[in-house]
Amino acid sequence: MDKHINTPITEEVTKDLKAGDYVYITGTVYVARDAAHKRMIEALDRGEELPIDIKDAVIYYMGPSPAREGRPIGSAGPTTASRMDKYAPRLLDLGEKAMIGKGKRTKEVIDAIIRNHAVYFAAIGGAGALLSKCITKSEIVCYEDLGAEAIRKIEVKDFPVIVVIDREGNNLYETAIKEYHTLKEM
Amino acid sequence: MVRTVNTDEIIENIKEMCIEANHYLSSDMDEAMKKAVTTEKSELGRKILNQLQDNLKIADEETIPICQDTGMAVIFLEVGQDVHFEGMAIEDAVNEGVRQGYTEGFLRKSVVGDPLIRENTKDNTPAVVHYSIVPGEKVKITMAPKGFGSENMSRIFMLKPADGIEGVKRAILTAVKDAGPNACPPMVVGVGIGGTFEKCALLAKKALTRPVNEHSDIPYIKDMEEELLGKINQLGIGPGGLGGTTTALAVNINTYATHIAGLPVAVNICCHVNRHVVREL
Cα(B96)–Cα(B73) distance, rounded to whole angstroms? Predict the structure, then answer.
């Protein structure tokens, strides 16, 4: 089912999202990947505040290519989410409500999604040029020294994603594959 | 007769090839992606494949990289034994080409100088360069930037000779099944069979640079490529890993002699942005 939602992503929003829904997101989204997640968790370990407002936030796992002149951002598709699995449960427990990435998640992350009424979206891997057209603004929030891995705040308009894991823990990667799996034996 | 090639020519070509590879798919990949739209059975799968078509069009028309992961630059350099390089050290020239290509082409710098200290080198160097010395006086450059979503899902299996051809097929299917959505399907599966530990990995990498519409010229390997592609597409993974009948576009297998005690198999997986540009100087 096609749905349009706006950020921030509250529990009111996630309660209507089901695995398999095709969703268009509009609003503010944070961008962070491996190195930025590591730093955020290290900051928390030191008792410091996070550099972003995590409550009901969406984090997009992405590291863009450089923007050409006159454009807000370069190519901007999702990166593999499993590399953030080590860090995601802690951020979800602090209020992060949605993650955008691609690929499988661990049980720990799925449990944290259920516990916090959150959601995991997949964007289309390898569609960085197309997805960049849905980003209207981009600014670096912190960790600028990380280059492509700096934390960014972006504005998106009708950014297309698919609900892969909903707040009940339904997992589209598992259910959709079964439907087309016809191989009798390996 | 010895032919002199100035390394400035290497720099210029590598620079252009980095930019070309990241903005336009080669014709074999382009055809395979277009064909997939017409054969995919899942509706969501077709929607994703159509969006990937739009993505390629935008990348081409607006000069935006097809994928933000513009890869680590992998370069195969086949150097004729009658070539004499004039200018700088050849590897420095290759890296200079990569540096210029990634900087001037607005490509992402995705390389860290040390695997554990992990500081970005900020110009995407060094490249990974594979040299071979061949007869003749030409220099053949194959530029294949490799994204790591799929690279991370690649595997090596040191099988036993008794595992035989069925063991090899099982290993390949296992690698693809485990890669699933992480490798950005539809994928291209590069396979190396035989050689030693490192040789079979290199065979697999090289297999990814073979056009996806060409088969091995060894008849039984060609059969295996076709059989495995059929089986992989019955795994159900589909475009984006969201279910469907297009999990792979091709299985390319390269083989080499091996030891009486061994049967190494390497599976190097590439996403649908399987970039390879070839030039001969």
Answer: 12
